Structure formats: structure tokens, C-alpha cells
Amino acid sequence: MTTIVYEDHDDQSADEIPVRRIKFTVNGEKKIAEVEPRLLLAHLIRRGLGLTGTHMGCDTTNCGACTVLVDGRPVKSCTMLAVQVDGREISTVEGLASASELHPLQEGFKEEHGLQCGFCTPGMMMAAKALLEENPHPTEEDVRWALSGNLCRCTGYQNIVKSVLWAAAKLRSESGS
Ligand code: FES
Ligand code: FES
Q1: Which of the ligands is closest to the CA of residue 151?
Q2: Which of 18, 47, 65, 158 qualifies as a cystine partner to 123, CB 3.0-4.6 A?
Q3: Phi, psi (5° rounding) for residue 20?
Q4: Which residue's CA is the closest to the ligand 1 atom numbered 4?
Q5: Total number of domains in the chain
Q6: Does 74 fall in a domain?
Q7: pTM of the entire structure?
């Protein structure tokens, strides 16, 4: 059970605060949480689950730093309510690597120098993961389109695009396609 501790900003008694119980999977682990209906998915992930690799940049659906996958599709978790993931599967950046190996996307960002401060990187990788699962042979234009909802203040994007193309080639060579 995931327990969320809320800030108490008003005079409501604890019994007056509505709470919903939800079940979901995160990075392959089954979870149950009790959440206020207004809780954002990003806060469930960061505060409730302690998965702080999901970053919060703008809190207004602009930057994409909070991107995670819900049932394989990229979503900005600051724009979704936690109750909306009831019965669904969440993937965060913490689930990319295995115990012993980096994911090809993580390798690609290292090989092609796809990050500087790294703040945007988890969101970039999750958006890219969704792309590569749908399209193993992306063009540069496909990558730029898939990442168009994710902002980077440091890199100028060129090396991020190269990183994703590097990962796509690595995944193809691993699968023999
Ligand atoms: Fe969610 Fe910026 S924090 S889009
Ligand atoms: Fe700094 Fe992208 S690497 S914001």
C-alpha cells in the first residue's frame, strides 16, 4: 500500500477529505494507493512512490520533464490525475535499466552526449521509448516529432535526436531486425 502524506492547508477534518483507493502497476510491480481525487499522477509517482526520476519542470503541461508511459503511451504526468491510472500500467525512467545493464536509450544518451544538466532527460527517454516501441525504424523527422512535446534548455536537441537514433539502431541489432 502506498501512503501519501498531504499538506494540511485548510480546516477540514481528515474525515471530510475524500479518498479513492486505486490499483495499478508501476515498472512491473503491483501497487495499491489511497489518493485524494485531486492528486496529480506526478505527485503520486514522486511523493507516494518515491520515484523522483520523473521530474517536474513547469507543472503546466509545457516542458515534458514529467513524461511517463501509461499503458505504453507517453503522458505528461502533471496533467493527469492519479485516479486515472486505476487498473493501468505505468512505466517510469527507473524501469528502463535492468539490474546489470543500461537500456539502449540510456546508452545512446551517453554515447551521443544527449544530455547536459539532465533535467529533461527522463522525460525525453520515456517519450523516445514510446516511439521506438511503435516504430523501430524512425527517421530523424520521426524522432523530432515524437519529442516535440519535450523541452530542453541545454543541448540544442541535435545530440538528443542522435541518441534516440543510436538507441533505435542498437535495439534493431539486438532483435536481429
Ligand atoms: Fe509536466 Fe512540465 S512538469 S509538462
Ligand atoms: Fe538540461 Fe535538457 S539537458 S534541460
Answers
A1: 2
A2: 65
A3: -115, 140
A4: 61
A5: 2
A6: yes
A7: 0.93
